[in-house]
Amino acid sequence: MPDPPPVRRTQQERREETERKVLAAATALIAQHGSRALTLAAVGEGAGYSRGIVSHHFGSRENLLRAVMREARTFALPEVGDSAADWLAATVRAYLKNVTSRRPAASAFLQMWGEAIAADPVLMPLYAEHDASFRRLLADKVRDGIRDGSVRADVDPDAMAVSLVGLLRGVALQLISTPPPPRVQAIISEAERSTRRALQP
Fold this sequence. Notes:
This protein has helices at 11-33, 40-47, 51-58, 61-72, 84-99, 104-117, 123-148, 157-175, 184-199. By secondary structure, it is mainly alpha-helical. The chain has two domains: 11-70, Orthogonal Bundle (Arc Repressor Mutant, subunit A), CATH 1.10.10; 84-199, Tetracycline Repressor, domain 2, CATH 1.10.357. The termini are far apart.
């Protein structure tokens, strides 16, 4: 019997595949060389397309950076547990496990964050917006914990949120340093325990 004809993909499916390949190429480039190495031509070459295709789908280098950041910052948040304090401690573990997963996206995210701190004019406002949103999420969970009794009542939720983001970013940067520190799982466990101790009533 003759082979069945190949399944024709829709225009939307072809577009989504192109965008996935472009984002993967851009993420890998940033993870290896930082965002300053990101040009539409270099990304197109890495994805197997022309510069024009990248420009057509993303419009500009800034839009491409935005898209990479959206993809790179994604990690699976834990399910709501028995208490808000449990959720916060589990989030610390999940964040750091994501960093050590060897995903180019995690390295790209932290590379760009370092550049944002150095006042990169494109990345600085993007990370300021992202960090403010993340701190709000953590502060709201701390408030939930005060209400459910799993977080000590005298905690300042906004200050604790800043402290937790500082813990996450500081440990994360060390975990992806070259060479990385030994006993990675022990480091993650200590960060989780420190969070629990800081929150407990």
